[in-house]
Amino acid sequence: MKLMTRCLLGMLLGATTAFAQTGEIVPNENLVVDGVPKIPASVAEAVGRYTEFRSAGFLSWHPTRREMLIATRFGDTNQVHLVKLPGGARRQLTFFPERVGGASFPRRSDAYFVFTKDVGGNEFAQIYRYDVATGQVALLSDGGRSQNGLGPWSHLGDRMAYGSTRRNGADRDIYVMDPLDPKADRRLLEVQGGGWGALDWSPDDKQVLVGEEISINESYLWLLDLASGAKRLLTPKGGAEKVAYGGGRFSADSKGLYVTTDKDSEFQRLAYLDMATGKHTYLTSQIPWDVESFDLTPDGKTIAFVTNEEGISVLRLLDTATAKERPAPKLPVGVIAEVAWHENGRDLAIDLSET
Q1: How far apart are CA 293 and CA 315, in angstroms?
Q2: How far apart are CA 355 and CA 339, in angstroms?
Q3: H/E/C letters for each residue in 85-148?
Q4: How far apart are CA 170 and CA 86, in angstroms?
Q5: C-alpha distances in angstroms, 184 versus 66, 160, 180, 181, 202?
Q6: Sheet harboring 181-189: ordered strands across?
Q7: Other CB atoms closer than 10 Å to residue 183's CB: what's the count?
Q8: What is the sign, positive or negative, of the torsion defined by CA atoms of 280, 281, 287, 292?
Q9: Angle between helices 2-15 and 41-51 (to 10 degrees)
Q10: 10-residue averages of pLDDT along the chain (355 residues)
Q11: Buried b or exposed e, range 271-309, using 16+ CB within 10 angstroms
Q12: Which of 182, 287, 308, 344 is the 20 to 30 A CA-CA neighbour of 131?
């Protein structure tokens, strides 16, 4: 119960937009509070040293230079900042009253990046384009009561596949857009359910890997052909035992996928899935821990992956040619939220919270 009380207090403080004249915390209109005692403003002031802290989260690599976009907070909300070199100053690029949810450069151009944000915390995220030279912002999605998320870029960097509920407000269909030509936006796949998302483009940009998540214990992978619109199920479905898949990256030769899965195991293992036969080759069976996230270098030669070892994240590297681990740098003890390779295949961004 003490843990629940602390979590609830954190939610209330995070959702507060003002203090009442009586000196009490007033949640914003998006939070319904029932049966919770009034919280004096003095409580918020007392715990401010614990709730008002600054952090930085990785968003995107610059497509060619060793620079990155990060999310960090100098006011009340996370905004996009540019960091030009290790240990360098952060330069703030966005200045909205609402927090920015994500941001991403295309693979081949640094003229712009796309980002998402909602309005007033309504969770109906919209997609925008930020022009680097001018700082001007353009709305790319419908601007209505749909929920939109960023997705993977094509290898040419001219298109982004993403999910949106614009059709009916509930089902998350798959779309593709050219951010420089929003009118060319088109729906690739109409689905049922809100757990669908684009994961990766094939090396020739003719196919998109799509994930369907039913629950934390059940998910499936589909291959979507962009020319015909046909989709093909790649993972088993309908069995007595539910299986979960995570990630999803095409191999360099387009014949297979690298995924995480708990198929035939109590742990989430890194695996290679042959798309022609459906055969799973498990790559981390010797590690008795869950693989939580991974990323593949653009040349397909190295996988950086993260294992959860009694609540502590461990970074590991795998050579795809030999399926053997390579030495990885030893990091401070903590939790890794994300790993992402630069296009140069040498630099790896690691989002680490030290404990």
Answers
A1: 10
A2: 18
A3: CCCCCEEECCCCCCCEEEEECCCCCCCEEEEEECCCCCCCCEEEEEECCCCCEEECCCCCCCCE
A4: 42
A5: 31, 12, 9, 6, 21
A6: 148-149, 160-164, 173-178, 181-189
A7: 7
A8: negative
A9: 90
A10: 33 44 71 80 72 82 97 89 94 95 96 94 94 97 94 97 96 97 93 97 98 96 96 91 95 97 96 97 98 98 98 98 96 96 97 92
A11: bbbebeeeebebbbeebebbbbbbbbbeebebbbbbbbe
A12: 344
240-294 per-position pLDDT tens digit: 889 999 999 999 999 999 999 999 999 999 999 999 999 999 999 999 999 999 9
Which strands sit side by side in the sheet containing 269-274, from one edge to the other? 245-250, 256-261, 269-274, 280-282
What tens digit of pLDDT does each residue of 183-212 get?
889 999 999 999 999 999 999 999 999 999
Residue linked to tokens 């196919």: 207
pTM, entire model: 0.85
DSSP for 48-68 reads HHHH----EEEEEE-SSSS-E
